[in-house]
Write the structure tokens for this entry.
Amino acid sequence: MKGLELCRQYFESCGKPMLQELARRHPALKGSFCAGLVGHGSECLGYDDALSADHDFGPAFCVWLPRSLFAAYGETCRKAWEAMPKEWGGYLARQTSLFGGGRIGVLCLEDFYFGLIGRESAPEKNAEWMALAEDRALLATNGEVFLDEPGLFSAVRRKLQAYYPEDVRKKKIAARAATMAQSGQYNYSRLCRRGEWTAAFFALQEFMKSTCSMVHLLNHTYTPYYKWMHRSLRDLPILSEIYGLLDQLCAPFDSRNAWETAQESDFLLGLINTKDSRAVLIETICQLVIRELERQELTDAHDLYLEAHALSVMKKIQDPTIASLQLMEG
């Protein structure tokens, strides 16, 4: 059973009656409970598998209380939460790893959001949205809310789920396009020419990370942190084919031989070493991204180099503060 489904069933069976009893004993808590499973953990993304069960896995959930009620009743609720069954549905209670604390249990609602996104509520101004990292925003919008009687938790969540304002999205797209151009189309090949193989590998990594972020931005979805940013491409409606291309980019390949034996006739447009499958894949990915930028009317440039499109996207940003940011910032 998937972890999120397990936790949902555990809540319905054990958690909801526990909260109802707390509300009966403490009338001030009536109508004040928020519960669910959101934040860190592969189960919150639906990516958990058999390997995931070795840590921070099992029947559990969060109860979020606004700060005033948490201060008054947090300890009472915590004791009730800890008194629930330690084994359920054939699964043992969650064994928390060294860095897995604070993911489940009775938590202060405002502190929970602050721990995920660095603030207690959703951003309001574009500059605040710019400061919100994609992976942190995803932590606050993944998983599932099982119960939200006052609607407080979901109110913040809905604003975050509405995604970045368009000017902020454009700025981040421009930054990713610039990084993809510099690390992939430009520096990867230059470093290979120089025989700087480790630096070329670093350039490849930068290109792949920026590509994953770019595809998510073009889909209006937040990018997970590095462990899941490639896996998540598979489920996206736009440019999901890049998932397989990145897999090919990571396949074993002798770049040294491809560059040491290359002749001038092997270079497409004088730049792309066709003997290096990675260089060809980089260019293929960039051209797919350019076509999508055109389809979304984000660029007016007519160029094979992504940096030209990054500059074109920048010109479409209306907020002068966001438009004034350095090209690769975001």
User: Anything to note?
Assistant: Strands lie at 34-37, 62-65, 87-88, 91-92, 105-108, 144-148, 267-268, 272-273. The chain has a mean pLDDT of 92.
